[in-house]
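Pasting two entries for a bug report.
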Amino acid sequence: MKKVLIALGVLLTPVVTFAATPLVDNLTNVVKDLGGFVNALIAFFIGIAVVVFIYGLIRFVVNQGDEEKRAAAKWYMIYSILAIFIMVSIFGIIRLLGNTLGINQGETVTPPRINP
């Protein structure tokens, strides 16, 4: 049994070696797709925070007579503004660090290749 496994390992070595190039290309595509997904996710969360702010604003205006409901509406507005501020600040800090270090946003990073 060991001899069969060794023979298969020796015979499959070129297949594994030449399969590395498509793997690197696939990895590059996965990283690109992941970056696009993360950017869409950030925009989605900022949109949610804006909707929560508008919801709190409407509740604040509609409930003029009830102080408890107005306090809850203020809570929604304050924390949604805080969430928007934090998300945009982190996005800005990452962009600043990228520009400072010379990393271009949106540019594809090409991993090193081994040419057979």
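Entry 2 (this is the one that rendered wrong in the viewer):
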Amino acid sequence: MKLTCTKTGTYRAITHVTRYQAGLVCLAMEFVAPGNYIELIGHEFEHALEQAEGIDITAIAASKCKTAYMTAGGAFETARAISAGRTVAREFHEHR
């Protein structure tokens, strides 16, 4: 995984996924500065777990299920990642 910070983009954070025929999956996480990094890191790492588990987010979004959808910018979002990010942020702030 590669973590970078950028000031461009229409998103707060995004994970780019590249899959190779041999089975290798590479993830590059990009975070827009400034932001709530605690929540965003938890959110994007949940997307990494979704990929590791082989979840087909594209198919879920296409089924119009409310657990995943395509954003206006063409990226995919999941309720699971939103929830994970919020949980990480809440736990971080509760234990500071």
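Dev reply: Rendering is fixed now. As a check, the viewer should reflect this: Residues 37-52 form the longest helix (16 residues).
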